[in-house]
Design goal:
With 62 residues, the chain is mainly β. It has one helix at residues 56-59, and strands spanning 2-11, 14-24, 30-42, 45-53. It has a single domain (2-56), classed as Roll (Nuclear Transport Factor 2, Chain: A).
Length: 62
């Protein structure tokens, strides 16, 4: 798995990351999946993390 950051937004204690994640399939192929992760921080700690992506292409028939 490899992550490539596309864009980052930060507003106060909220951060949103847009990324492309490369997954290796069981058949050896690599698949790029768009993803978004939203974090909420309190001080130096992450108190909430939400990850959104469609994993369908990773598990689709070859």
């Amino acid at each position: 798995m490899k992550h490539r950051l596309i864009r980052l937004w930060e507003i106060g204690d909220e951060s949103i990351f847009e990324a492309v994640v490369t997954y290796g399939r069981a058949d050896g192929a690599a698949v790029d999946i768009p993803a978004v992760t939203a974090y909420t921080r309190s001080g130096d700690s992450i108190v909430s993390c939400r990850i959104y992506c469609d994993m369908t292409p990773v598990f689709a028939p070859a």
